[in-house]
Amino acid sequence: MTPREFRSALALIGLISAAIAGVGGYFFVYTPLQNTAQMRRMLEKDIDDLELQLMQMIKDRPAVALIQRQSLPPDDTIAQAQYSQLLERLLLQSGIRDFKFSSVGIVQARPPIIPDIAPKRPAYKQHRFVISMESINIWQLVDFLYAYYQLDLLHQISTLKIERNERDPSRNGLKVTLTSDAIAVDGVKARTSLFPVTNVVAAVASNLGPQLLQKNPEQTRLLQWIRAEPVLASPPRNYTYIVQRDIFYGILPPYVPRKPVPFAIGPLPDVTMRRDGKPYVVRIRLSGDGSEEAEISASVTGSLIPEDALQVDAENWTITLPPVGEDTPDSATSTVTVTAVSSEGVEVKKSFRVSVEAPVTPPPPPKPEIAWLITLPIVSTASDGTAQAIIKDHFNNFRYLISATNTTITVRKEIPWTAKSMKEDANYRRTHPPGYLVISDEGTSATQRTFRVIAIDENGIILCEPNPPAKVGNERNGGAWGGRPGFGGGRAGARQGPADPLAALTGNPATLIPRPAYYRWEHGKSLQEALDKGRLKAEEIDHILRRIAASGTVVLHRLREDQQ
């Protein structure tokens, strides 16, 4: 190898070694150093990001604590119950009484509107409450909305619908439908109550404080809570201008001072005590200024109630009278004087009288109807124009003897004399005109009827009742003629009332005189059957009366055409 070739080979070997050293240094020294530097820079960036996040978390810690404090309890049932109680208290505090919760429920989560912090675990739950209010005014609504936005809670009104009742002339005719959405953040601690609790009550009563305030709302009077970030305008505005310029009923008229109402005791009627051994409670009603917190007392004089026997309930304004014994005299009475003092110091008095109810006399037993027991067993006519009939009263053992000639009819009454004999009742003939059949037993039974016997034929007697009872003899029931006594069915139906106003007041003079009723009492039938089925029609009455007037006799013999 020549020296030149040797130098060339050495140079080539050096170049190759340098290239190999450069490649090895790049891959095994420079590249690892660059990767290490890049990883160091990445770690420094992650550290910076974490430090920024930590600083942001430290910065947001008060806001998170505020959100947790403003959130509803995590339990759905407890959250809805407590928030409903809170809204109900706000409504009552605003003077709204006619309201109801139309619906209460949870709005379904809709990602990404409500983000998830875990699979199927939303960051918060949205509770929706729909409230319907009726018969309210704009002032009550403004008070409710003002108190609503003073509460330090995660809630808002999503919809508000106001309608006016056009039929209500007053300013209390608004119908409001309101939807309130409240949020319960996931993972917050359970709250004892949503009601605001003062520091003094919370320190003294611990967890019993909220329960005490829920059961006794008068302890806090009004629900007021200052929000960390006020929702309403700051500084506070005067929202009464909304009421004064009512957009539904017009501008509010100027205020007129209320007239003073005198303090008074309501009516106290006299009391009549029963002998049932039970006390009697008298409720005192007070009205006027200062009657809400008025106090009452009572005193008694008289012989019925002792002085120390009265029981006065000053809270409920009642006075309890002691029971009356069976041996209390009927003449015993007492006078109770009630004294009422208003919260303004006005004193009024009023009295009422207490007496004993008179003994109740039981009504007499009902008298029997004996019309079914009065029969016509015997009727006979003779060719000489005379006739005989016998009526038997089986209930009283009376007997009525009817005798008829051509022109006259007489009626005699026989009463029992001995066990087997009868005697004539002389008083009957003296007190009743001839021809009158008076069914009477001096009040022993309910059957008391007066008839006039106008004719006798072979099969019975014809009776005329001059003054029939209203249920059988007037035109209101059964018409003018015919029909069963006491029922409809006559030829003339019920008539319409008079069109003349004067006639409506004074009545028709013709109807003031009762119209007589005519009956045929057939042989072997009872009086009740004659009254029910024997009432004569107008044609029959007219025929009989014409026949009597034409022949001049009251004993009628049926002709062949009559029998047919």
How would you portray this structure in words?
This protein is an alpha+beta fold and about 575 residues long. Among the domains are: about 75-195 and about 225-250, Ribosomal protein S6/Translation elongation factor EF1B (Alpha-Beta Plaits), CATH 3.30.70.60; about 265-355, Immunoglobulins (Immunoglobulin-like, Sandwich); about 370-465 and about 515-564, no CATH class. Helix content is about 30%, strand content about 25%. It contains 12 helices and 26 strands. The chain has helices at about 5-70, 75-95, 140-150, 200-205, 210-215, 240-245, 425-430, 470-475, 500-505, 525-535, 540-550, 560-564; strands at about 100-105, 115-120, 120, 125-135, 155-165, 175-185, 245, 250, 265, 270-275, 280-285, 285, 295-300, 310-315, 320, 335-340, 345-355, 375-380, 385-395, 400-405, 410-415, 420-425, 435-440, 450-455, 460-465, 515-520. It has a 5-stranded antiparallel sheet. The chain has a 4-stranded antiparallel sheet with strand order 1-4-6-5. Strand 20 and strand 21 (about 410-415) form a beta hairpin. The longest helix has about 70 residues, at about 5-70. It is elongated. The termini are far apart. Residues about 200-205, about 215-225, about 470-510 and about 560-564 have low confidence and may be disordered.
Structural key phrases:
564 residues, Alpha-Beta Plaits, five-stranded antiparallel beta sheet, 12 helices
